[in-house]
């Protein structure tokens, strides 16, 4: 399907967020051409009565005035310089950014205001903005997170059809680290039975180490309505033998039980420790520092998770 771009102004730039390790989010675009089969945003789209199936990502809203609005909001007396998370609902470095440069403009505004920020992306285009990120990091906390669920080429191509290859993201990570910018890897979402084998996880952790990652964190797949139907439909097409297993594993809800999540997150945590990642204060999205290099997933429901562990990923 062809992608259309809707150039629409926004009234506000910063969005108040509850239940997360950050208080505010910022999304220069709405909708994402990456069209990952597991994207959690599909559940939000369904609740908003917008398409969550294959049509998601074919219409992108471009907030042309977002940087100007952001500057006004950052200049308010009531603004307390809280952490702003970029990319919580859509990737800020999807291809449209090459033309519109809205993410760059927002980073410039945040940097000028010396405001702390965190950013998560699958887009190597971020290297274009190393100058702004490096300057911002001199005056405020800055944390960049590259979402790299797997290095398995078949799993990547099938589940992340619109994204850059994972090793391109690692090259971008290396470039940011060489510039002194704190940057790490989110191994998320890990797909049970597809990308959770120890050798697959070890490959990502070693690659993160080689790229100079300051932190590694992990999260397993969760399937809320909207995302669930879309992901299972594609699973039935691409890995039909796995479908009965997923229906069994997720029969009680959107989250896997601890008996399945804890062994995987413990494995990643130990791998990261052995590779020396996170010894210099790891920083997951939101800027909070966990007691281990990995933000672990616990419990069978959101209420049983800490705010950092409830953090959804893009996408």
Summarize the structure.
The chain is of the alpha/beta class and 315 residues long. 36% of the residues lie in helices and 14% in strands.
Question: Layout of SSEs?
Answer:
Blueprint lengths: L3 E4 L6 E3 L7 E3 L2 E2 L10 H7 L11 E4 L3 H9 L9 E3 L9 H5 L1 H11 L4 E5 L8 H8 L4 E6 L5 H7 L6 H13 L4 E8 L7 H13 L5 E5 L6 H12 L4 H7 L8 H17 L32 H4 L5
Parallel strand pairs: 1-5, 3-6, 6-7, 7-8, 8-9, 9-10
Antiparallel strand pairs: 2-3, 4-5
Helix pairs in contact: 2-4, 4-5, 8-11
List keywords for this structure.
315 residues, alpha/beta, seven-stranded mixed beta sheet, three-stranded mixed beta sheet, 12 helices, 36% helix, disordered C terminus
Order of strands in the sheet with most strands = 2-3-6-7-8-9-10
Tally the helices.
12
Q: What proportion strand?
A: 5-15%
Beta strand count: 10
Note the main sheet.
7 strands, mixed
**Top CATH class:** Alpha Beta
């Amino acid at each position: 399907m062809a992608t259309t771009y809707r150039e629409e102004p926004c009234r506000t730039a910063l969005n108040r967020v509850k239940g997360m390790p950050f208080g505010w989010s910022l999304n220069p675009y709405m909708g994402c051409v990456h069209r990952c089969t597991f994207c959690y945003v599909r559940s939000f789209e369904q609740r908003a009565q917008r398409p969550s199936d294959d049509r998601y990502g074919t219409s992108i809203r471009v907030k042309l005035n977002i940087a100007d609005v952001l500057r006004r909001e950052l200049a308010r007396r009531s603004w307390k310089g809280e952490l702003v998370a970029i990319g919580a609902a859509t990737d800020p470095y999807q291809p449209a950014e090459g033309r519109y440069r809205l993410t760059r403009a927002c980073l410039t505004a945040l940097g000028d205001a010396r405001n702390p920020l965190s950013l998560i992306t699958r887009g190597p285009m971020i290297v274009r903005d190393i100058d702004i990120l490096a300057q911002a990091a001199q005056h405020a906390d800055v944390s960049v997170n590259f979402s790299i669920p797997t290095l398995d080429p078949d799993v990547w191509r099938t589940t992340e059809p619109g994204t850059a290859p994972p090793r391109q993201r690692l090259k971008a990570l290396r470039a940011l680290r060489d510039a002194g910018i704190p940057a790490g890897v989110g191994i998320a979402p890990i797909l049970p039975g597809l990308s959770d084998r120890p050798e697959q996880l070890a490959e990502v952790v070693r690659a993160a180490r080689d790229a100079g990652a300051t932190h590694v964190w992990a999260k397993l797949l969760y399937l809320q309505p909207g995302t669930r139907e879309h992901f299972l439909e594609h699973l039935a097409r691409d890995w039909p033998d796995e479908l009965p297993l997923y229906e069994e594993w997720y029969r009680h809800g959107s989250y896997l039980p601890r008996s399945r999540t804890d062994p995987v997150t413990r494995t990643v945590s130990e791998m990261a420790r052995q590779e020396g990642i996170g010894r210099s204060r790891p920083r997951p999205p939101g800027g909070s520092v966990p007691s281990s290099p990995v933000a672990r997933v616990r419990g069978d429901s959101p209420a049983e998770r800490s705010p950092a562990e409830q953090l959804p990923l893009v996408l």
